[in-house]
Design brief:
Layout: E1 2-7, E2 22-27, E3 29-33, H1 39-48, E4 58-60, H2 66-69, E5 81-85, H3 90-97, E6 102-106, E7 110-113, E8 116-118, E9 131-134, E10 141-145, H4 152-159, E11 165-171, E12 186-190, H5 196-202, E13 215-217
Parallel strand pairs: 3-4, 4-5, 5-6, 10-11, 11-12
Antiparallel strand pairs: 1-2, 1-13, 2-3, 7-8, 8-9, 9-10
Length: about 220
Amino acid sequence: MKLRIVYDNEAKEGLESDWGFSCLIEAGKRILFDTGASGEILSRNMQRLGIRKEEIEIIVLSHEHWDHIGGLSAVLHQNVAVYVPGSFTKRTKKGIERKAAEVLEVSGPADIVPGVHTTGELGIGIKEQSLVLETKGGEGVVVLTGCAHPGLENILEAAKVFGELYGAVGGFHGFDKLKRLEELKMIVPCHCTVRKEEILRMYSEKAVRCEAGERIKI
């Protein structure tokens, strides 16, 4: 399984950085997780990475904040299925339904495609879903988060129903229990991770700097 960071606060040369997050997952089907804040920036980054929106078969949205769904209109098309937490507003869901093939509301843990699962909607205040990705060699699962508003530790715990934890990729928000990351073999803090630099220093042997254009194999 391959991941490609498409949208992030940092970017490799030739790509644009912006506040937001989007990641392409290649797992038999092409899945886009979140869409960043700007459709224009998302489209330009996708073009430079050789990603056509028509090739995206599934879109998964973590939560309804603008920096994760702002670019949605740039990638919707009539053949794409969109997975959204059930807490999304009716207005947002209806807007997606007009342009997508199917809108699927997520509540509890579920399979998206073989090897790719959703934690289901987590959290009390800001509700959010994360993805759980099975590693190719069967070493465990990698958690892919949007902002981790429900708490990264809670998301990791929820992911354990799908297998032993191997890694975490995405926004960790204000997560500060950094010693809990010791059990992971892969750490890729992105987007809104408040203690990103500290995590990169603390786990320099297994942490990867996240930026648009980064390739990750799992």
